[in-house]
Amino acid sequence: MAISTDAAVHFWGTETELTSGTTAGTVADGAFSDSNDTNTWTNSDDAPLAMFQLFVDDWGGAPDAGGIVNIYAQLLNFNSTNDEPQPDANYKSHYVGKFIVDNVDADQWLTAGPFALPNYETSQNYQFYIENQSGQTIGSTNNHWDFFIVPMTYGPHA
Fold first, then answer.
1. Does pTM top 0.90 for this prediction?
2. Which residues of the chain, if any, have pLDDT below 50?
3. What is the DSSP string of 78-93?
4. How far apart are CA 76 and CA 7, in angstroms?
5. In the chain, what are the domain boundaries?
């Protein structure tokens, strides 16, 4: 089937590793990642959507069947230099989406999305966090997990 001219299609931006240059620390089951685990990301394209990838090569054991890792966003530098509170167990303002994990103690590349981004203003700055609900610690031995974002939009097919 050929996609007709002007039909709505997705367009992808450039992938960014949110954990690049950081030492993403251990995230216990039921806990949130720390603000030092990921870099600030600027939505310079004002994309309304994003895809996410999570790579975990260090589980504390086999995750629970049906285990998940949630994604949250903290908006930064809006109305000048104001930041929202950091997400935690009592403040879950901008839920973005979730990864569903496999219940095996092995390397896992997980992809999730597309999810809507909570853009407050143009070139919105974000800090993204994961909430581990997998039943096992992420990064239990060598603190290794990687987190990626790919901005997306949609428009007419040429």
1. yes
2. none
3. BTTTB-PPPPBTTB--
4. 35
5. 8-156
